[in-house]
Specification:
- The longest helix is centred in the N-terminal third of the chain and has 22 residues.
- This protein has a domain of 323 residues: TIM Barrel (Alpha-Beta Barrel).
- The chain is an alpha/beta fold.
- The chain is built from 27 helices and 23 strands.
- It has an eight-stranded parallel sheet. Strands 19-20-21-22-23 form a five-stranded parallel sheet. A two-stranded antiparallel ribbon has the order 3-4.
- The termini are far apart.
- Bound molecules: glutamine and zinc ion.
- The site of glutamine has 13 residues, from loops.
- Glutamine (GLN) binds next to loops.
Length: 764
């Protein structure tokens, strides 16, 4: 029987089963291997991906979803939007490409990279296209056509993926004044059409045009641009088009998206199940609807019963010919293959049973479509029943549900969100206790994690270094860091975080409700990957997590030692989270665990405690109208974690980005006694918003950029601090670097902090 309902995968992880691409690229960048070797690794990854999907039986297999660095950069290069500063490199496309991605300092060239920013609300980062007034476009690569041909030669017919012209412009940035990038559409469209022609030439039938910006707030001008662009495209190609949206519902853009002249529209119903009925009733006659029902953003097994109900509903309304079953987004945001997780210690089989990675999700897409047509097929029945059993098991599992956590959450009262007294009263008591000088100096938490420190951890993991010896070595390192901080004259010290691999993983490993994978890597940017923890169940803290380290460090000095914790929103944001309860609920549980830690630190005599929340801003929803409800629970979670202490205990928080303009009110509502922020790259300009808002509490604007090995001079720092006083009165100013010093070397760190302390002293 031939399958009528078609299956659609939007993109596959391109890092390779074992992060082969990372290894090949880094070796190529270091001059250790040839470009041919790199190309060979890339070819092998693409081929394996296509084969996995083809063998699973996927109908619409993506191509051109592979990238050496980033799919937006691929499109930037393909369409010839090459910033002028790279002109000298134009005769070597691969060198040009990597130079655009991460800059180049070689053969007399010294050219900075293009900017990088977050891809919608994921932890992936893309390279931001740069546009100028007289922007020219020209078809520069035929990567999409080449990869289609490559797959075809291997016997696999694919659906090339292109970032659509409107999103391409919207995701970019004007690099000079006097024009709006959306007005470039007229010069862009002919080149985009040429790109489509190149696909026709190699025999493509379908193309996936990604327009994720359709899930954002769009003004009328941009909406009109969509109509214009897709009419132009329609008149200039014979390819069949699946207009693809993801990461959110279409909301007020639904009518627009469904009206565009394309054969099929893809919608993310994992993110926007509430839109399902509206959309299936609004799809114009003859148009295909691709249902994004298998989650491309999270690692849970699909709920077949629920998905099938949707698919059947769509089939009833549209007919099987007009329904595709697909992933909600590209699978590049989930790890490659769950089968690689064979260590029962870090990932218990009971939990693994609830999970699915890209390979498994690919099969889910195919199985769902098959079930929708042949529900009674015995082989399919078996798979279905297994899925139902796995999901039922998850719902009831005692591993997930911890009655004590529920009870604890229920005892939270409104008082728990508030410190005993407002900031001015607290500040007074804190000053009486801490006796800090004006312009107090501190650091953000971590000190250099040298190769040596990392090697101890690696050896300890492999069992080559006993826990006892490992702890002793870390204690010695901590003691050295404390001693040096005293010598250099810092006012509030830190222990250095040497025992932490990662600021989220460290806490996840100590909390109940978290699991870890061995190979669950997802691309963060370029060759960089992260391995997020999995929050599978109710979160609780079996015992103190940092008290031993912090009290040990405090025992070495008379100066205040700052306790270092990661905040609840950041822990949530950088993990795979459970999808069986709202994120706000999970965050509340984490907040309570952190709260207990904060109280324990206080009880152990720690007078200053920092709760890092570098990820609060990146959790912002894509639609403005959703911001307030998110910020409300995010701020509350922070307050819940930080408000269990007495007035005289000083709470710090830290954030390392620089756009506070639109959230300053909420930052103030967090009510930390001190906030330290990244500031040096904007030369203190971002303090303007704190000034305008009359931010009431203390602020430590970063006085030097920790991403560079450069040592700032005393004078430079003094100048920045003088500038800072335009917005923040001296009484409420702290002096600190932009962020943690984990990635720096000791000598530059020592030189920089020495100058920083000297600058603070000279201002007193
Ligand atoms: N305390 C952390 C550190 O210093 C903060 C890191 C961060 O902001 N990303 O490493
Ligand atoms: Zn930071």
């Amino acid at each position: 029987m031939t399958q009528i309902i078609k299956t659609n995968v939007l993109g596959f992880p391109r890092i390779g089963r074992n992060r082969e691409l990372k290894k090949a690229e880094e070796s190529y960048w270091n001059g250790k291997s040839s470009v041919e070797q790199l190309l060979e690794v890339a070819r092998a990854i693409r081929l394996e991906n296509w084969k996995i999907q083809s063998q699973a039986g996927v109908k619409f297999i993506p191509s051109n979803d592979f990238s050496f660095y980033d799919q937006v950069l691929d499109q930037t290069l393909a369409l010839g939007a090459i910033p002028e500063r790279y002109n000298a490199l134009k005769n070597n496309l691969i060198e040009l490409y990597f130079a655009m991605a991460h800059g180049i300092q070689r053969n007399g060239n010294d050219i900075i990279a293009m900017e990088m920013t977050k891809w919608f609300d994921t932890n992936y980062h893309y390279i931001v296209p740069e546009f100028v007034k007289n922007q020219k476009f020209s078809l520069t690569t035929t990567k999409a056509a080449d990869e289609f041909a490559e797959a075809k030669a291997a016997g696999i017919v694919t659906k090339p993926v292109l970032l659509g012209p409107v999103s391409f412009l919207l995701l970019g940035k004007e690099k000079e004044e006097g024009f709006s990038r959306i007005d470039l559409i007229d010069s862009l469209l002919p080149v985009f059409a040429e790109q489509l022609k190149s696909l026709e030439k190699v025999g493509a039938e379908w193309v996936q045009i990604d327009e994720p910006c359709l899930v954002l707030d769009l003004d009328e001008k941009v909406k009109a641009l969509y109509t214009k662009a897709f009419n132009y495209i329609r008149n200039n190609t014979h390819l069949k088009i699946v207009l693809t949206t993801y990461f959110g519902g279409l909301r007020d853009n639904a009518a627009l998206a469904l009206s565009l002249p394309v054969e099929a529209v893809h919608v993310d119903f994992v993110r926007a199940p509430e839109e399902f009925d509206t959309i299936i009733n609004a799809v114009p006659d003859g148009k295909i609807l691709s249902l994004g029902v298998v989650d491309g953003r999270n690692i849970w097994k699909n709920d077949f019963a629920a998905s099938l109900a949707l698919i059947r509903k769509a089939v009833n309304r549209l007919g099987a010919h007009r329904v595709w079953v697909g992933a909600s987004s590209s699978f590049m945001h989930v790890p490659y293959d769950l089968a690689a997780e064979t260590d029962n210690q870090s990932l218990a089989p009971e939990i693994k049973r609830w999970m699915a990675f890209a390979c498994q999700k690919t099969s889910e897409v195919v199985t769902l479509a098959a079930l929708a047509e042949n529900f009674n097929d015995p082989a399919l029945q078996n798979i279905y029943n297994q899925n139902v059993a796995d999901n039922a098991d998850r719902k009831q599992s005692p591993l997930i549900h911890n009655a004590k956590v529920g009870e604890r959450v229920n005892t939270v009262t409104s008082d728990d969100y508030n410190r005993k007294n407002p900031y001015p009263a607290r500040a007074k008591k804190q000053q009486e206790r801490l006796h800090l000088p004006k312009f107090p100096t501190t650091t953000i938490g971590s000190f250099p994690q040298t190769a040596e420190v990392r090697s101890w951890r690696a050896k300890n993991r492999k069992g080559e270094l006993s826990n006892q010896d490992y702890t002793r070595l870390l204690k010695e390192e901590t003691a050295r860091a404390v001693k040096w901080q005293e010598e250099v004259g810092l006012d509030v010290l830190v222990h250095g975080e040497f025992e932490r691999n990662d600021m989220v993983e460290y806490f996840g490993e100590k909390l109940n409700g978290f699991a870890f994978t061995k190979n669950g890597w997802v691309q963060s940017y370029g060759s960089r990957c992260v391995k997020p923890p999995v929050i599978f169940g109710d979160v609780s803290r079996p015992e103190p997590m940092t008290v031993d380290w912090i009290t040990y460090a405090q025992s070495l000095t008379q100066k205040p030692m700052k306790g270092m914790l990661t905040g609840p929103v950041t822990i949530l944001q950088w993990s795979f989270v459970r999808n069986d309860q709202p994120r706000s609920e999970t965050t509340k549980q984490i907040a309570l665990a952190i709260r207990d830690e904060v109280v324990d630190l206080e009880r152990a005599g720690i007078k200053v405690i920092q709760i890092d929340e570098p990820a609060i801003r990146e959790g912002l929803p894509l639609r403005h109208s959703d911001w307030n409800s998110y910020l409300d629970w995010a701020v509350k979670s922070f307050r819940l974690s930080s408000s269990g202490v007495k007035d005289e205990t000083q709470i710090h928080t830290h954030m390392c980005y620089s756009e506070f303009n639109d959230i300053i009110e909420h930052i103030a509502q967090m009510d930390a006694d001190v906030i330290t922020i990244e500031c040096s790259r904007s030369q203190m300009e971002l303090l303007d918003v704190f000034g305008r808002f009359s931010y009431p509490n203390e602020i430590g604007p970063g006085v030097y950029d920790i991403h560079s090995a450069r040592v700032p001079s005393v004078e430079e720092i003094v100048n920045l601090l003088v500038k800072a006083q335009k917005n923040i009165p001296a009484e409420r100013l702290w002096v600190n670097p932009d962020c943690g010093l984990k990635t720096r070397a000791w000598d530059e760190t020592k030189a920089a902090i020495k100058n920083m302390v000297e600058a603070a002293k000279s201002l007193r």
